[in-house]
Design a protein that fits this description.
Distance between the termini: 38 Å
CATH topology of the largest domain: Serine Threonine Protein Phosphatase 5, Tetratricopeptide repeat
Number of strands: 0
Structural class: mainly alpha
Order of helices and strands: HHHHHHHHHH
Radius of gyration: 18 Å
Strand content: under 5%
Length: 170
């Protein structure tokens, strides 16, 4: 049943994208009041984005792989500016984190606060995930909006020792 829902949603996404792409000049002449209201295609696309992020949050590998195999953008951001990798890492979903990394998710992207997937994993003390993310080479001097590097961020959250151990056990 879950597989059928996934296929149906992916088909809706493809149809929605073709409708959005084909609307071109019709959308350009839309009034301001119409532009403020999401159309059916936008709503369907948002449903798919939400479903993709729910799969990352809950570790539903099958659904993630269906989305990714269908060409869903792996570094798609949600309304909070998180990527699926950030959501999976923060929620302790090791297998989902692995699938996203294997499909090329960018571990160095930052959310609206400047935090990365690894910073999210540090907050939740998900050090098996931190080990996986350490394999991705991000700028060690990358700072969040509070001006903290990963090391400073871990110290702030009381995770310095665990972060150091995780970095040694790659």
């Amino acid at each position: 049943m879950k597989h059928n829902i996934t296929i149906l949603l992916l088909m809706i996404a493809a149809l929605s994208m073709s409708v959005v792409m084909g609307a071109g000049s019709a959308q350009a002449s839309a009034t301001v009041s119409q532009a403020d209201e999401p159309d059916a295609a936008q709503v369907q696309v948002q449903v798919l984005v939400d479903y993709f992020f729910a799969a990352a949050r809950t570790g539903d590998i099958t659904v993630l792989e269906h989305f990714l195999d269908a060409g869903f953008p792996i570094d798609q951001r949600n309304s909070q500016t998180y990527t699926a990798l950030m959501v999976a890492a923060y929620n302790g979903q090791e297998a989902a984190t692995d699938v996203l990394l294997e499909h090329g998710a960018n571990a160095c992207l930052q959310d609206k606060r400047g935090n990365t997937a690894m910073m999210g994993a540090v907050i939740k003390a998900e050090f098996n995930i931190v080990k996986r993310l350490y394999a991705k080479e991000c700028n060690a001097n990358l700072t969040n909006n509070a001006g903290m590097t990963l090391t400073e961020f871990a110290r702030y959250w009381g995770q310095s020792g665990a972060l150091q151990q995780a970095s040694l056990k790659q």
